[in-house]
Amino acid sequence: MFFSNNKQEPKTSSFSRRAWEIFWKLDVVLWLLTCILFVDESEYVIVERLGKIVAVYDQVEPERSDRGLHFKLPWPLEVARRFDRRTQLFDSPAREMFTRDRKNLTVGSYLCWRIAKTKGKPSGDLLQRPVVRFYRTLGNVTTAEARLDSRVRSILSSEIGRRELGELLLSGDSESPPVEGEPLRNLSAKLLSLSRKRENEKSDLSERDGIEIIDAGIKRLNLPEGNLFSVYERMRKEREKIAQYYRSAGEAERTVIESRARRHSEELLARAEADARR
Length: 278
Hints:
Blueprint: H1 2-33, E1 36-39, E2 43-49, E3 52-57, E4 68-71, E5 78-84, E6 88-98, E7 104-115, H2 130-137, H3 141-161, H4 165-169, H5 182-196, H6 205-209, E8 211-222, H7 228-277
Antiparallel strand pairs: 1-4, 2-3, 2-5, 6-7, 7-8
Helix pairs in contact: 3-5
């Protein structure tokens, strides 16, 4: 029995060595495969060598596109970091904000953005590429959208705080009919402009953080449920006051016209009677 076990041991040892050799060779093949880098149409790629950026693939123009197959040193000597270059839609949650006359509104907004393209022929300084600025200042989409959310909230809070409730719900002067959607269009245009660059900033968002704002706007501008009745009641009373003003003005004008007409008719009648007596 003891002799039999010794005869089988070399076979087991040989199998283990072969299995280990296959496993080791497979690991080497997989490691070498990390040298292959494929850049898709929908992404930018940054290659880092031991923490230093050595290559950036961000050219999408047909005449100098760098899409397709590339090679790099194997991991972990060089690491590829991928970033989606497509337009992102950030749907900012609705928030309650105060107008200049201390009335609160619920404001919902949206923002369309993407990592900015390299304009013109790329420079030799890789750190000046928009995708590199995005990577170094923000790192990922989650952090970028958190920063954008804070920016949008600050802009809207400031802009709505400069306007009274009536300016947001109605447009034009009090004697003109409201133009549907105009308050939202004006506020959306202001949001888009300030999202790209605020008045106190020396450079725009693209130059600073590598983010290009495509579009921005207000989805909805609503009164909070608790304030609807009181605001509608106040608006009704204001309209009644305006209507009463026009009614009073009309009555006064009618009295003046009737008085003039009566006086004119009396003058004509007196003149006719005088002519008849002659």
